[in-house]
Structure formats: structure tokens, C-alpha cells
Amino acid sequence: MLRLSVALVALLTAPVLAQADDVVGKTFPATLAGHAVLEANTIIPAPADAPADAQVSGKFAAGSARVDAPGTVEGDTGGLHGKRGTGLSFPFEGQPVQGFSGFAMERAEDGSIIALTDNGFGSKLNSPDALLFFHKINPDWETGDVARETIFLKDPDKVVPFRIAYEGTAERYLTGADFDLESIQLVDGTLWIGEEFGPYLIEAGLDGVVKGVYPTMLNGEEIRSPDHPALRIPAEEGKDYQSARSGGYEGMALQPGTGLLWAMLEKPLLGSGENALTVMAFDPKTREWTGDVVKFPLAEGATAIGDFNFIDETRALVIERDNGEGDPSLKCEGEPTADCFPAPAMVKRVVLVDMSDVHEDGTVRRIGHIDLMDIADPDGIARLETAAARDLTGKYTMPFFTIEDVMKVDDTHIIVANDNNLPFSSGRRLDAPAANEFLLLAVPELLAAE
Known about the structure:
Tachylectin-2, Chain A, mainly beta, 5-stranded mixed sheet, 5-stranded antiparallel sheet
């Protein structure tokens, strides 16, 4: 078994990591081999036995004021991205399929990809009517369509250790006020889901019924976020909570051979003073944290990760990103306007790491990466046009705020997909909501690199 241990004290006192070229690693080419698109405005009905409240979602997504009338508030990209309208209005009559926030390494019995949708509209406060679910999906590279079967999560046996939004109901469907789901793996017929509010690991059946909820333990201490259900105000950063808000388990990888789940925090631990992410091992057989810890070093300009999956017993893929969206050629020169991106996408990568090669500071070795802003498309496979003030002939990009799904297909291909943050992100266009895109990428050199 791979045994990689780093004490908590080392995580909190290590010096800031250098951002040298050897941290970034070599850049390998990527070529578009397939493209499938699920339209942004993909809405599904809530289950018939769900509370009536869930039949219309997004009633609290506009801020402090409740909005009941469907389709009356236009989504916008927020202050960081110029508050451009996306042209899609909420509340929604039904539940948005939303952006996908994680792929399981193992496929379902029918060959489908198991994909996860996150908490709804972005926070604990604005998503109490957004149901939680996962999908079995099948992109069709020939037609560009995406087949999907959705399974809703629920807690009829009252396993969740705190009061949920739909506490008094029979089925007890889970919502975005309960958990923020970000990563998923299938282990021996059981789903394991990493989330951000605890952060917790959730054990569930393929029928969506929750079987267990496990707190994060590091060096004998529970790691909590500001959204942990037990937290009370006033709370002290670094003492009462150590994980940043929206900094929980964005990626969780299943390691072949050992059967361990390696859960990666999206952001550095508060007070660590370093630009590296904590990665902890959990044994699904014993349902305990093993104490094994490594760190993923973020490159300069990167602020978070999006997904994390092994490709063999020691090497793994990690999506590394900044907070930008939109093509850099349309960067605003002054005040943001409707025809420019104030914070365009710059750092969007799939990084290959060697989890068995750990430096003295506890960081794993970055072997290299592909640049998702520089994908070759010589055959014109891309199905969507990109707003840009440059010639993108023969090239495709992923200029999205959040890109949260990656998995190996075979020895030469991977699939990458985005989280479209419906209805609050654009990226591909200036005035339209981002779709859910699935890219099949030919990356033989990356997958062969050691």
C-alpha cells in the first residue's frame, strides 16, 4: 500500500511554495477528438413525492429577497465578471441539471459515466429548494447529444447527523442547503461523495439513499468549514474552522490497487501560508481516515482545482484553474462593458501528477499538463463558436470559470467537462449562459509521461 504521511504541524508551518518552472511542469499537446453539448436551459421535474417547494427552484437565488414568480430574474455573471446578463431567468419550473462537478473513475454497469451535480445556485443560503442528484450520462460524439438518467439523493433513514431542509418529510430529499456536492467515486457498488459544507464524505447507494456521513479528520482533529452545521457565531478562523468557504472536497480520486479515496481540498488550509492543497486518504472499507497526507502545489495564477482522478496506481489527473472566464483577447481595457471580459480565463489546465513521488515539503511531483486554452482542432470538430477578437481557426478553448470534470477513457484519450454555474456564468459567449460541454481529448503524450 502506498503510505504517504505528513504531520498537521508541517501543513500549517511550511514555507510558501516557490512558483518556479519546475512546479508547472512540461506542456503537452491536446487535440479535440469529440464534442458533445447539453444545452444550458436543461430543466427536469422534481420527483412526484418531493415537497411542493421543490417544484420551483431558485426562489432564493436572487439575494435576500424571496422571488416566487418563475422566470422573473435574469441571471448575471457577478461583480468579478462585469455583471453581464446571461439571458436566462429564474426561478425555474423544475430543477436545473446545472453544471457537472465530478466524474467517477469507475463507470456504471451499463458503461455510463457517473457524474455529479453540485449544490444548486452556489451557496448554503440560496439553494434550499435545489435538490441534490447525480447522473448516468453518455455523450454521443457522433451526434453531439448527451443522454442522461438522473438519481435524486435522499435520507429516509435519518442518517444525516443534523437537521436538513426537508426534515419533516417522508422521503427527506437532500438540498443545496444541506450539502455542496463536488466529487464522486464508485467503490464496490457504493457511491462516495465529497462535499464542501462540512467538509464531509457521504456514502450512498446507487438508488440515492444515504448510508453514512463522515467528518474530516486530520491528525486527530476535525477540519471544519465556515458552513459546518455545528459552527456558531462568533467563530475564529483557524480555530473553529480551518477549511475556507467553498474550499472542501472539489476533487476525490479512487486509487487502483489500494482502494483508497484521496480527497483533495479545493483551497489551501486557512493559516497555512502556502499555495498548496491538502490531500488526505480515506479507507472506504474501514470508513476511517488513514492519516496519510500529501499536498498538491498550485502553479502561479491558479486559485483552485476542479477534479481529481487516477489513471493508474500512482499517477493522477488534476484540473487546475484560475477564477477567470472568457477569451483573453476580449479583456476589458477600462471599466467593464457588455462586449468585454474584465477577468478572462488564463490558467485552465489538466495536470498529471505522480502521487508516489513526494518532495520534502510534502508536495507531489507535477509531471506536466495540457493547456485547456490551447486545444488543437484541425478537423473542425467543435460544435460551438467562441467570442474572441482573434483567429481561433483550428483551435478550441475552455474559457470557463469552473471546469470540474476529468477522467481517463483509454491510453490516449480523456474526457473534460465544465460546470456552467447556471444561470450565472457565460465564458463561451458574452451574452449567453454557458452550456454543459463534454470534450473528448486526444492526449497520448500526457498519458504516457512519467
